[in-house]
Amino acid sequence: MNALIFSAVSGVIMMFSSFLLNNKNSVRVLAHVLLLATIIANIFELRGISFFHIDTRGMLEFDRFALLFTLVANVCTFAFFLLSSRDLEKIGNHYSDYFSLLFFILAGIVVSSSFKSLLMLFLGIEILSIPLYILTGSDKRNLKSNEASLKYFLMGSFSTGLMLMGIALIYGATGTFQTGITVAEKVPVLLITGMMLLLFSMSFKVSAAPFHFWTPDVYDGAPTVVTSFMATVVKAAGFIAFMRLFAEEFGSIRPEWKLLVGIVAAVTLFIGNITAVFQQSVKRMLAYSSISQAGFMMLAIYSLSNDAKEGLILYAAAYSLATIGIFAVLVRMKDYTFEGFNGFAKQQPFLAGILVVFLLSLAGIPLTAGFLSKFYMLKATIDGGSLALAIFAVLMAAVSVYYYFRLIQSMYFKTGNATISGTTTGFKYTLAALAGITILLGIFPNLLTNWLYF
Amino acid sequence: MIVLLLFLVPLIGGFLSFFIKNDKTVRTWALLTSVITLLISIAGNTFAHSPGQLHFSSSWLGSLGSSFSLQLDGLSQILCLLTAISYPLILVSTWRSSYKTANNFFALMLLTQAGLMGVFLATDALLFYFFWELALVPMYFLCSGWGGERRIPVTFKFFIYTFTASVLMLIGLLYLYFQTPDRSFSLQSFYALKLSNDTQSWVFWLLFLAFAVKMPVFPFHTWQPDTYEQSPTAATMVLSAIMVKMGVYGVIRWVLPVVPIAAYSWGDVVMSLSVIGIIYASIIAIQQDDFKRLIAYSSIAHIGLMSATLFAETKIGYQGVMVQMFNHGINILGLWIIVELIERQFGTRKLSQLGGVAQKAPALAILFVILAFANISLPLTNAFIGEFLMFSGIWSSTVTHYNILFTVLAILSIILAAVYTLTAVQKVLYGPESSITEGTKDIHGNEKMVLWVIVIMVVVFGVYPQPLLRITDGFVDLLLNKINVAHLFVK
Amino acid sequence: MSGFFSKDAILLGAFEHDKFLYVIGVLTAALTAFYMFRLLFITFGGSFRGSEEQRHHIHESPAAMTIPLIVLAVLAIIGGFVGVPEVFMHGGEKLADYLSPVIRPVTEHKVSHSTEMLLMALTTVIAIVAIVIAWMRYRSYKEEQPSAFGKVLENKWYVDELYDSIVVRPVNKLGVFANKYFEKSGIDALVNGVGRMVNYGGRQMRWLQSGQVGSYILLMVISMLMFFVLQFFLRK
User: Fold this and answer.
1) What is the DSSP letter of B238?
2) Could you tell me the residue range of the domain that residue B432 belongs to?
3) H or E element: which one contains B56?
4) How many domains does chain B have?
């Protein structure tokens, strides 16, 4: 509740800040302060101290899982602010608006990760999506950005329609919007159909195949900073909502959807990884990488155990930190292709070293958070009864090494003129801190997962 | 404590090396670190026998059922000793090679050593996997960063190949974890497992594949000659002297006692592959003109013999494997140094372009010839002890019906080894001088010293192998015990 | 001489065992005598066949070589007495005693002492005859073209060539074949092929990403339909 109120209010404050503050720097500082306040408020709630007591009539429930994820999302957003807020300002003149939109997205994340009613799920997903449509098109004079925004919006509405239809069918079958249904022996067809529609629309939101088609185009077209946020925090939030929905609402009809989710996971892994191999632009590669990582996160939904919960939180953190870090460097590069990174290590040995940590984490090499989060997923999958899916997943992870390491090769082993601008000392230290967290979580994941229990 | 230091010293030394910018200092530092590691390892082998010194366990990832536990038993001792001895020799013998950004090079070398030590010490499956990758990743950077012309695609293939196999191993380990009653990754729980025959079979392949690629066993070997050829010599030395032993070690530690029935039932297949590999690699070695590739294929043949012996399941054979793991490491190190010296002096590794070196470089010639003899495993060299024990091991094997056939085919490898090794000796040392070898100078200084050390080890362990045998004797008995119990169970 | 007694012991053994072997043994002994003395006569006898220059350089070997030669010669003479047959000296077979822990001593000779003496004499006579032939033929040796049979002998019965064609060359050919076809375009190509397949797959998969919203939605609808079919009709 704390985080929800704080981020919603912060959004409003940021909206008006452009009237009151005409200095870019002060707007930025304000945004940082507000986000920090949100984080602190969230930690308080995680420790059992809630500032607000509002009766949500059981439509929202702030359990530890939701709170912890909100914390992760907020911290990742904070890292994003620290690294990329200056780039956010370069998109256009309405920089305070961008911050306010980001805060609204955070509010949407809170709602969609702590819903107890399907209405709240819908609301949360929409609060989270609509600002994204705007942000995607925020580079007004760029045709690609406009196109991406329109595509995203069109297809997004399509999936919203599916979701609404699904919710309606479920209401028809059960007579309630509250989650946690119990079903009799025979599962009503209406419920199954509703469940499937929700599966499709949620798959769309988290860009799981075969509903991922918007992802590469939109990620590629959107301003790179926005992509960075969209591909990480927002996607992870989608997964939390996905997990919550399937654990609480459809947990009792698990046999009905297990196969479907398994197929979606496998197809996502396959398409994401195989297509990423051929990409020439790092930005597009990261778009496909986000799809392939989504495939791994789908495994959590497939197995729905405690391991899967811990793992999903860890995955969200590991994946977001690494991807935000890589995007933060990418924004500053002159050339977004792999060739553009040739010789990077020679000019920026420090940054290159940090990028290597992030890439290793994404590829799932031990001693990084990325490995352990993948490990959790595999463990949950095998526990959930599908060894074949786990084997398929690791084979695809081996494919992913190919495109992540291509970037390493460009940076370290090829000669060229990688040009990067605007790397301040603070920027480097922030990145180093992210890399540090990545490694720390890779050795002691309990630092994060223990919050679920204590 | 010793056991922890074995891993920590190279790890910390490696990390610190990143920050030493001066070329000379970082070399000295790396050498110092490796010498300290060697001293610790010797201490672990000689007087530190209390369990407190040889075991270390600390809680780590408790929620995942894994702990940070290391142990120095007979098998670990011999491999840690090999690792510890090899490093100073490698560093001294490549002292004169120049590297761009030397600090990174030596840091990665030491990190690899830490990973290798970890692999040989870990008694927890997850920890083992961590170290397995920790050894691989720095190695990739070493080979790709400082290697030859085609290094980028070649080492990438090496990396993806081994990585793919190792993630499958991870799945295998995870599956075993779920079978343990207490949900634990510890080696002891794995040893206590009683899996059904079918389960054992595919767990066996999941695990064995990773080790087979690493060793490499035919037909998973194609990454190896290219990688050896393209890597910087120091990295090649680590790869061939120590890293391939990770595969052999893995089979002994994590496959044979864990899935003994599968090891028994698939033994014939693996032995056949190994024996085919021995002959196949030897025949191809005869064709090689590049000295590095020749040694690479020769190494495949030698390792093939080890992997065949592993599945013969005889005491004498296992002792041979233990001894030979050490001896092969030492010998191939010597051969690589010879290659390095030749390449540095003449700028080529092509045998056909060399000749007549013996006249002007008698010291090089003598050392080379002794090492060549060791490569053919002539009596009085250390390799003879190991290979002879292994041949007897395969011969006396009771788990396969084809033991005699396997032995005969495997022994062919000695003849073939004589063919390619002596051809190389002849082409390099004798015959007419070529335009390249006209101004041959003899070796001196570091390389000479290292080669003499190696040659002395070759002869000493060839005449008096008991110290090595003693280290592993107890371990071999324990191992056989674990495997044999299963045999009773089969019958 | 040591060679006499040792060879004789072997021949005796052969005689006891198999007469044919004995004949071959004696013949070999004769040939040995022949070629050894041929060597002697050609090297030291006859006229000098080298150049004047070389002739000038001939000298007695240095002490470092002569002394070991003398020692060896002495040993060759007295070495024979470690195994004198019983015919000449009772209890003379010192060597047999010495080796008895290793080799089971032959306790009983099947052959009588007189036969043994006879055989020895025969061998000696044959050897002397061979030496005489060698002396006749080679005492004044001139270089000559070898006869046809001599050529076969000069080429060591062509055994090397035989090995070359049935062992060395096939192994080499096999090696070339294995290296070129099996290794490079077999196993390695298979390994690389997996990588290339992934790459190719990536290239083809790209075409799904057409950029047209309409086709995306079509694809999504088709896959939804497939999921529905799977869920309601195929799943048991």
Assistant:
1) I
2) 266-491
3) strand B55-59
4) 1
Spatial CB neighbours of B27, under 8 Å, sequence gap ≥ 6: B91, B95, B102, B106
- Put simply, the answer to whether C183 touches B284 (Cβ < 8 Å) is yes
CB B377 within 8 A of CB B278: no
Instruction: Rounding to the nearest 10 degrees, give the CA dihedral for residues B191, B194, B196, B201.
Output: 10
Using the beta-carbon criterion (under 8 Å), do A394 and B167 form an inter-chain contact?
yes
In a domain, B259, yes or no: no
Low-confidence ranges of chain B (pLDDT < 50): 490-491
B111 reaches A (C-beta below 8 A) = no
Disruptive mutation site among B160, B229, B284, B288 for chain C (greatest number of C CBs within 10 Å): B284
> For the residues C13-24, what does the mean pLDDT come to?
78
Q: Tell me the one-letter amino acid at A339.
A: E
Query: So what's the pLDDT on residue C134?
Result: 78
Q: Which alpha helices (H) appear in B60-181, and where do they start and end?
A: 74-93, 102-121, 125-146, 151-179
CA C98-C99-C103 angle, to 5 degrees, is 155
How much of chain A exceeds pLDDT 70, in percent?
100
In a domain, B182, yes or no: no
Q: By CB neighbour count within 10 A (0-12 exposed, 13-18 middle, 19+ buried), where does C228 fall?
A: middle
Per-residue pLDDT band at C83 (split at 50, 70, 90): low
Cross-strand partners of B59: B67
Query: Which of 191-220 (B) contact C at CB < 8 A?
Result: 219
pLDDT at position A389, please?
A: 92
pLDDT for C98: 65
Residue B77: DSSP 8-state: H
Interface contact A445, partner B, CB < 8 A: yes
- Asked if residue C84 has pLDDT above 90, the reply is no
Q: Which residues of A touch B231 (CB under 8 A)?
A: none
Q: Can you tell me the mean pLDDT for C163-192?
A: 80
CB B390 within 8 A of CB B320: yes
pLDDT tens-digit map of C112-150: 777 777 777 887 888 888 888 877 777 666 666 666 677
Q: Write down which chains contact chain C via at least 3 CB pairs under 8 A.
A: A, B
Q: Does B95 map to a domain?
A: no
In chain A, where the domains are located: 2-452
Residues 6+ apart with CB under 8 A from A204: A155, A156, A158, A159, A162, A211, A212, A214, C220
What's the sign of the alpha-carbon dihedral A234, A236, A238, A244? Answer: negative
Distances (CA, A) of C132 to C26, C43, C121: 16, 16, 16
Q: Does B283 touch chain C (CB under 8 A)?
A: yes
CB A203 within 8 A of CB A239: no
Structure tokens at C63: 């002490």
Asked if the Cβ–Cβ distance from A401 to B160 is below 8 Å, we say yes
Instruction: Closest CB to A409: pick one of B133, B156, B164.
Output: B156
Residue B232 lies in a domain: no
How big is chain C by its Cα radius of gyration, in Å? Answer: 40
CA nearest neighbour of A420 among A331, A359, A346, A339: A331
Residue to test with chain A: of B7, B59, B63, most A Cβ within 10 A = B63
